[in-house]
Amino acid sequence: MKKLHSVSLIGDLCVGCTTCSKGCPTQAIRVRGGKATIYDIRCIDCAQCIRICPYHAKIAVTDTLEERLDAASGKVKVAIVSPAVFSQFENSATRIDVMKCVRQMGFDYVFDESIGYSGYVSAARQMLLEKQTAAEDMSEDEKSEIFPMISTTCPVVVRLIQMKYRALISHLVTLDSPLELTAQYAIDYLCQKLQIKKSLIYICYISPCPARVTSVINPLWKKKSLISTCVGTHDVYPQLRSLLNKIEHHDSLTHEEERAIRISEPEGLQCAAIGGESTGMKIDNYLSVDGIENVIDILEEIDRDNIKKIAYVEATCCFGGCIGGPLTVMNRFAAQAKLREHIHDFYMEKQLFPQLIVREEDIIPQVWELPLPENHAMRLSENIGEAMTKYEQIDEILATLPQLDCGACGAPSCAAMAEDIVQGRASINNCIIRQKRMKKE
Amino acid sequence: MKKSLSRLGVKAEDIKRASIAMYEAEINAVIHGHGGMAEVTVHPDKVVIVIEDHGPGIPDLDQAMVAGWSTAPDLAREMGFGAGMGLPNIKKNCDDLDIKTKVGEGTCVTMIINFT
């Protein structure tokens, strides 16, 4: 079986310090035998551990570009570039410059993921209008089952809801991700243009985060992703940067490049930063929230039915949105300024290269192939009776623990430790404070 | 309670029903009963929630069950409570509801939510 997540550990660098264990929002990490280990079933790929590890021992496993391109020999090589990538360079590189350079790294065609974002936002807008019309005859209770609608562009938020806020699954926008929508557009475009079979197209995604990489390996609502492989933005950054320093800027494109590059309108591009998607919804009663802890707060409020009169919630795990992704390079505030420049540049691009622009109406919205399953990683047992017994045992054990939440046992808190003991994943002897107290007595 | 039920593996919709019922009963106990005690017992097939207060009691229970009927003070209404939907809402979300009340002595609401 394929590994479930792309977040991983370099064992040699891990000193067993418990920083990641204590910082994990879903308590998915334990330090065992001096090394951090992840409970795959509880990991939502938020990459908090990657950000906070002082020893840089947590990494996102992505493929390396060279290997992947070799594996794709004989196929049409397509790159899909996250809109977060365009804002990673402090020089005057435009979006089209970046795409030109991505192509020079060994691709035949390059598509901007914003294409899918603009399709997603326009379809979500339509979906919201339809639901609002349907809701006119609904009771307040029925309305609270579907509103506010919650965006599904951030896969971390979806995984969080799947596991901890299962009652909110009915609020999710049931559209396929912007990445898959872009891939579908690319495939349709190329199959028609080149008269080739879908199987001959090899799509590589340049990702700002490990969560999207995981969604390619283990899709949330479809059997198989259209993406063949993923590379992290930081992995291609040095090469891309040196190519960008060499190229002639934005005045001309070769005939080949004109055929090979496709970009979106600004509505898609602005989705790289928090607030962009909401702006595209063209409503006032939206809410945008960024940062995993803030997202948890808001989901908690929605779950308690405390968020009224809000129609749409845009939520991203990373501060600043995808431009703040853990695999990006540039400071997110600087990246946001750069993104504004790119949005501004669009009007120039539109005049120079109108043939490159994919309009939102050209995207065919796709809905979920499969319903989103619930993730029961937090429950104690499949059987309620057994879960109740375990619950009582946990309380009994917890009463004997110091409740200092020191983390020295490897669990993030005494409560988590008590649960681990009952679930047979840890021994009470791992608690050094308790051991010491017992010795004294 | 929500977190506990979730850990026990109770379905999301049952948790939601239990939380709404409990929340409404708690609000009633605070607004009318000047506070009280809540006791939640989980069984393998159901959750039993008992909210007891020693407030003024309900003089006309049938009237109190009517949607929109409210005796909440202005202060509570200013805060968005007192729409007269509390008891009807509880009834809707419970599988079994028992209200014992005596004027001048208090009210005890027992709510049972069966797990689906």
Please indicate the percent range of residues of chain A in DSSP E strands (runs of 2 or more): 5-15%
Taken as a percent bin, the fraction of beta residues of chain B is 25-35%
Helix content of chain B: 25-40%
Average pLDDT score of chain B: 88
Task: Give the termini separation of chain A.
Answer: 49 Å
Question: What would your notes on this structure say?
Answer:
The complex is a heterodimer of chains A (about 450) and B (about 120). With about 450 residues, chain A is an alpha/beta fold. In chain A, about 45% of the residues lie in helices and about 10% in strands. Chain A folds into three domains: about 1-60, Alpha-Beta Plaits, CATH 3.30.70.20; about 65-380, no CATH class; about 380-440, Orthogonal Bundle (3-methyladenine DNA Glycosylase II, Chain A, domain 3). Chain A has 19 helices and 13 strands. In chain A, the strands form four sheets. Chain A has a six-stranded parallel sheet with strand order 9-8-5-6-10-13, sandwiched between helices. In chain A, strands 7-12-11 form a three-stranded parallel sheet. In chain A, helix 17 (about 385-400) crosses helix 18. The longest helix of chain A has 21 residues, at about 115-135. The termini of chain A are far apart. The mean pLDDT of chain A is about 90. Chain B has helices spanning about 1-5, 10-30, 60-65, 75-80, 85-95, and strands at about 35-40, 45-55, 95-100, 105-115. A four-stranded antiparallel sheet of chain B has the order 1-2-4-3, covered by helices on one side. At the A-B interface, helix 17 of A face helix 1 and helix 2 of B.
